[in-house]
Amino acid sequence: MDDSRSGGRETDTAAASAAEEAAPGAPAQVERLPTSECWTLLQEARLGRLAVIHADGAPDVFPVNFTSYEGSLFVRTARDAKLLHIAQHPLVAFEVDGDTADSLWSVVVRGRAARVTSDDELRRSGVRELESWSPTRKLFAIKITASTVTGRRFPKRSGRADPLIPFEGRVRAEAPPEPPHRSRGDSPQQIPHHGPRPATAPHPVDAGGDHDD
Questions:
Q1: Are 86 and 115 in contact (CB under 8 A)?
Q2: Confidence band (pLDDT; 50, 70, 90) for 161?
Q3: Among 33, 31, 18, 21, which Cα is nearest to 148's?
Q4: Among 48, 88, 41, residue whose Cα is nearest residue 66
């Protein structure tokens, strides 16, 4: 994945979210989760979605079981397409979501994926104890080292269906309203005018040289 493209998408998404949250009469605001709470949610979850780029440049998403350890995510894998994809394009995204009694949440991790080649890291991370829901034998592991972790929480409520319009041209901010036009009969506004300052007498010079403050 290209960092510049990811940054652009993040900027567009953030701008759209800010506009929606600031709209008059908008529903309860979306809550931005602190990084610590994002990791707590990740540690409690067991199923996520790994987004990768194929060797030919096409995107793909894999639902996977995972575990987290010291700022990284670990996924079991077979000798399959995922290993080939991360070898060509190591930048990946990982998404986990869930809900509580009154809210919905989503956490997105962006980082770099690599094959785990250390037996010690396989042991310490706990990925050996991770049970995969897939019937395929998975004898290897992938480590996703997080570079950014972001999360949002939405209040549970009935859905909304805003009216849609065709998207045409570039999205532009509305121009500020023009000042009211002044007819020729109106007198021009006066420019503030200040009179000359009164002259001040010069300070006497002490013949002794230095002044004592």
A1: yes
A2: confident
A3: 33
A4: 48
What percent of the chain has pLDDT above 90? 46
Q: Can you give the pTM of this predicted structure?
A: 0.65
Q: Is the pLDDT of residue 82 over 60?
A: yes
Across residues 133-151, what is the average pLDDT?
A: 93
- In this prediction, residue 178 carries a pLDDT of 62
Q: Phi first, then psi: give them for residue 42, nearest 5 degrees.
A: -65, -40
